[in-house]
């Protein structure tokens, strides 16, 4: 990582950016549900990364029924088998009809594949999508190349960096 140029280090997302992009996702989904007037009945966030976008979308869309499904598939940047640690009330979920399932991003598509198998009729939405995972997502805002690592604001802190041309 340390001998890469700044633009090769990854795609760094600020809080402001994820807020704007999550709002854009909500607006794109507005009125596209199967209920009256295109309503959605609930939002399910895929923890942990989906929680911030799901909260922002729930607020934009006026949805108060918000639940989580807990999946763990990465340890740092290494992917293992996706494990479902907890899931929403089965009576509320049914086959997923009318439920918006939200995550921060789709990369290999493995996480969404697991959730899709549980709720085949839910609508799957992510803020960011890499090409491999795109077939697993119904709606996303920004496409990112497969070899880019996305850094989210909850994983970062402001810190000093050396000037690009080095110290004087
Ligand atoms: O499409 P995939 O290759 O499955 O990758 C995408 C998933 O990986 C990350 O979650 P992670 O499992 O790291 O957990 P976290 O959300 O708790 O950070 C990200 O938030 C997505 O949920
Ligand atoms: O690019 C990524 N950034 C953060 N978390 C991730 N989990 C899978 N891919 C990514
Ligand atoms: Mg996640």
From TrEMBL:
Protein residues bound to xanthine: 107, 150
Pfam families: Pribosyltran
Localization (cell): Cell membrane
Lipid bilayer topology: Peripheral membrane protein
InterPro entries: PRTase-like, PRTase_dom, Xanthine_Guanine_PRibTrfase
Gene3D superfamilies in UniProt: 3.40.50.2020
Documented EC number(s): 2.4.2.22
GO biological process: GMP salvage; purine ribonucleoside salvage; XMP salvage
Binding site for GMP: 107-111, 149-150
Binding site for Mg(2+): 104
Pathway: Purine metabolism; GMP biosynthesis via salvage pathway; GMP from guanine: step 1/1; Purine metabolism; XMP biosynthesis via salvage pathway; XMP from xanthine: step 1/1
UniProt KW Transmembrane keyword: no
GO molecular function list: guanine phosphoribosyltransferase activity; hypoxanthine phosphoribosyltransferase activity; magnesium ion binding; xanthine phosphoribosyltransferase activity
Enzyme class: transferase
Cofactor: Mg(2+)
Keywords associated with the record: Cell membrane, Glycosyltransferase, Magnesium, Membrane, Metal-binding, Purine salvage, Transferase
Protein residues bound to 5-phospho-alpha-D-ribose 1-diphosphate: 48-49, 103-111
Residues annotated as domain Phosphoribosyltransferase: 14-160
UniProt function note: Purine salvage pathway enzyme that catalyzes the transfer of the ribosyl-5-phosphate group from 5-phospho-alpha-D-ribose 1-diphosphate (PRPP) to the N9 position of the 6-oxopurines guanine and xanthine to form the corresponding ribonucleotides GMP (guanosine 5'-monophosphate) and XMP (xanthosine 5'-monophosphate), with the release of PPi. To a lesser extent, also acts on hypoxanthine.
Subunit structure: Homotetramer.
Family: Belongs to the purine/pyrimidine phosphoribosyltransferase family. XGPT subfamily.
UniProt-recorded name of the protein: Xanthine-guanine phosphoribosyltransferase
Organism annotation: Jannaschia helgolandensis
Source lineage: Bacteria, Pseudomonadati, Pseudomonadota, Alphaproteobacteria, Rhodobacterales
């Amino acid at each position: 990582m340390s001998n890469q140029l700044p633009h090769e280090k990854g795609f760094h997302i600020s809080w402001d950016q994820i807020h704007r992009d999550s709002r854009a996702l909500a607006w794109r989904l507005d009125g596209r549900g199967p209920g009256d007037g295109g309503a959605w009945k609930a939002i399910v966030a895929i923890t942990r990364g989906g929680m911030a976008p799901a909260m922002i979308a729930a607020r934009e869309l006026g949805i108060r029924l918000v639940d989580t499904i807990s999946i763990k598939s990465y340890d740092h940047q290494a992917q293992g088998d996706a494990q479902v640690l907890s899931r929403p009330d089965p009576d509320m979920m049914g086959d997923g009809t009318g439920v918006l399932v939200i995550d921060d991003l789709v990369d290999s598509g493995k996480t969404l594949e697991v959730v899709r198998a549980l709720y085949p009729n839910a609508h799957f939405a992510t803020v960011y999508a890499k090409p491999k995972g795109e077939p697993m997502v119904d709606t996303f805002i920004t496409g990112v190349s497969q070899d880019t690592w996305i850094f989210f604001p909850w994983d970062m802190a402001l810190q000093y960096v050396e000037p690009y041309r080095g110290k004087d």
